Structure formats: C-alpha cells, structure tokens
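Record type: ASSEMBLY
Status: queued
Input:
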Amino acid sequence: MKAFANAILNLFKKPATIKYPFEPTYKPDDYRGLIVHNPELCIWCRRCEMACPPKAIIFSQALDGKQTYHYNRAVCIYCGECVRACPKPGALIQSGIPASPATKEENINNSWKITVDEALKSRAAYLAQKKKGEATE
Amino acid sequence: MAIQYDIPVGAQHISLLEPLHFKLTTENEKIVDVEANVGYVHRGIEKACTSKFKFKQVSIVVGRICGLCSISHTTAYSQLAEKLLNLEIPLRAKYLRMLVIELDRIHSHMLCLSHVAENSGFEALFMQTMKDRETSMELLEAVCGNRVQFDYSVVGGVARDLKPEVAKMVLEHLKQLKPKIDDLMDIFQNNWSLSLKNKGIGAISKENAMRLNAVGPLARAAGVPVDVRNETEDLLPWKQVGFQMILENGGDVHARNLVRLKELYVSMKIIENVLNGLPEGDFFVETKALPEGEAVVRLEAPRGELFHYGKGNKTQILERLKIKAPTFSNIPAFVEMFKGNEYASAPAIIASYDPCLSCTAR
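Status: finished
Output:
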C-alpha cells in the first residue's frame, strides 16, 4: 500500500536527472581542461615536453632556431604535469575549457604522428646545421 | 549420484561489470565446485612503468589501472617513490590524500551496494543508490578537477591545494548525504525481498576467511579484523582522524552490505575531521633525487589491502614495480564462498565480492 502511494506521488515529483545537452552539468571552477601555451612568456626549455606522460606536447625547430609549440588535445590526459614542470609562471596554464570532441575531418591521430615525425626531423636538421656551422668556424 | 553440469559465467555476462570468468560445476542447482579466471584485461602496465615512463610520470600511469580506486594506486605509488627517495612530505599533503581516499571509498562502496541490489533483482534500489552516489562524484570533481581520473597524489605531495570554499561545499554536501544513507541503511537492513537474496547467501566462516587470507570488507564481514588503516601509522595518520574498525559476523552478502554501509559513516567522519583539522603549510615538496633501493607500501583501497613493491637503481626509470590488488588476494576466499549455494545466487555473490579486474590483471 505504501509502495502504491509512493508510485502515485512520484508522478508529480521532479526527475533526479538533468536534461543534459540543454542544461549544463556541474563543472567546478578549477576544472582540468585544455592546456594553453603563451609563446610570449615561454622560455623554450622543453620541460613540459619531457614531463608529459602521453607525449601530447612537442616542439619543432626551424633552421634559424625558432621553436614552435604543438599540442594534441586528443592525446592529452589533462593531468597537469606539464604545468607543474613549467619553470616560468604563466607560460603554460591549464584552463577550465573542456576539449571539443575530435572529428573525422581533423584526422587527429594520423596528422599527429606526422607532426611528431616532422618536429623530430626539424630538430635533427637544426642540430646538424649548427654542428656544421661550428665545424666551419 | 546426480548429474553434474558445468556452467560458464563470463567472461562476458549480463551480471558482470568486467571480464571475469567462472566455471561453476553444479549439481541439482547447487554449486559444488568453482574455477575462476581473472586474466582477461592484461595491459602490461607494470612493464610500461619500468620501461617507457620516468618514475615521476608513473604515478599518473598507475592511476589509469582502475577508474574506481584510481587514487589508491596513485597514492600507494607516490608513497613508494617517496620511500625510495627518502622524502618526507608535509602533513597537509597527507591530510589531503586521506580526504580524497575517503571520498573515493564512499563512491566505490556505493557503486558496489547498488550492484548488489541490481544483481539481487532490486532495480529501484540500484537507481536510488546510484543517484545518491552522484554527490560523492561531484565532490571528487570539485576537489580534484576530474570525475574519474583524479591524478591527485604526485611524487612529493598532492597536485593541487584545497580551496576553503570547496572544503565548505564538501561539508555541506556530506550533511545532505547522511539522511540518504540512513534511508539506504534502513532498506538494506529491513527489506524482506532483498533479504531473500542476501541473508545467509555466500557465507564464509571466520576460520575460512583467516585461512584463505581474505582482505577488505569481505574479511571484515566475516569478523576478521583486517584493515591497513588500523595497522600502519607511518605513512598516513589514520588514527588521528578518527578511524574505526567495522566488524560484522556471518560473512554473508548481507553482512558485507552492512560493513560497506557502516564504513560510509566512518569515511564521512574521517572527512569531517580532516577538513576541520586541516594543518597549514605546503602541500608539495620539490625534489631532484633519484630512486634507490627497494620499498614496499601497503594501503587500504576500497576493496582491501593494496600492495606496491618497487626497486630503483639511481636512474629516471624504475627497475621493477609490482602491484598486488585486493581482488587478487580475495580469489581463494571467493571461490570458497560459492560452494553450497544455489546457482541463482551467483550474481549477487559476485557483486557483493566487488571484483575489480582491471586492478587484478593490469
């Protein structure tokens, strides 16, 4: 009898769930989201690259020595190790923005492999050129 | 003699959350013999930790072993690395680790309780328990910044400090959670239809639990006082924050439910004490030392004693890492538990055992 009354009463109660795509879910202020890099503050020490467990950060280097930061949000596990390893405050921060899902057009896995290969090659090319320059001097 | 039938349960089965295989030999619906196979989710994490990752990254990697006791693995490994480095961490970091371990215990125990209810055929109680569990998930997200993979303990302390407003929020939410757990306690204790599937089912005696080295809630439900929080004081000061041992007699599914429910109260008390007596100071110490020697760490995960062994050789990469999960220690007792029960009780027994296969096989 009590169960029957409960069942009737439940018809007029609000649901315990939320209508997710239309209503936002709970998100704390310091949510662990995307890693944001600031090239103006960065001192290019590559410590974040060395600290990153899944290798989601890689630096490529042009022949004149200028480095570029590459980051893959689908490889990143948002642990924040890179931010802790960064010696310059503000150069690398963890924002509260959740990552957008990867789409097929981006080809995120294969293009990331190509990016890593190219970055490693560009660094090797820069080092080879530097060595050559030192030898000629 | 009656005909014996071998019935396989798993590796893919409707009542199992994870790939666990049993071969139940039954005779007139009674289970007479059991074989268990737990090696379906081997991922080679131990090898990866000793070949691919630096020792400071390993604490993030071992967190990925299991989603439910992620913080237990991370904390156990961080303590292991600190032992290898001879590093003393601040008291505040220890307190914050205890806070997250206990929040994790609340959500893990509630998940187990809900699955016991579901596998006993009480779907509505499953929904209710999962709804209440959401509170603890939200609190974990507020403290750690993520719902499942906490990555909270790192070598040298914890990853982030606790904000005062988050501490306040945790206390408020726990106050709201308490009456809900009282309701659950009432249903689990007094519901007649649940008692048919729980009381006297899957019982293990105290002697058998001791002989087969059971750990965790399974052993405590049989009356064996086994809890790492009661035994070690050097790594985390459990007794300072009001740890209490929960013991039950009987060792059946019902007793295990009660142990888990009562441990929720203990966990909430510990969290309150941690937050009210949180010491000031640093939460992280930087170190440049390299791991050397051997060390062993034990930690009470939600399912029982978690054991980490590590060996360092003064390089960035560890020489050996061995993890023994509580589910693995409990398998002999678990196999014993099945015998003499009806085949139809098997799902409830499996759920009350709370198996975590990702931890066991790694």
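Annotation: The radius of gyration of chain A is 24 Å.
Annotation: Chain A touches chain B through 15 residues (CB under 8 Å).
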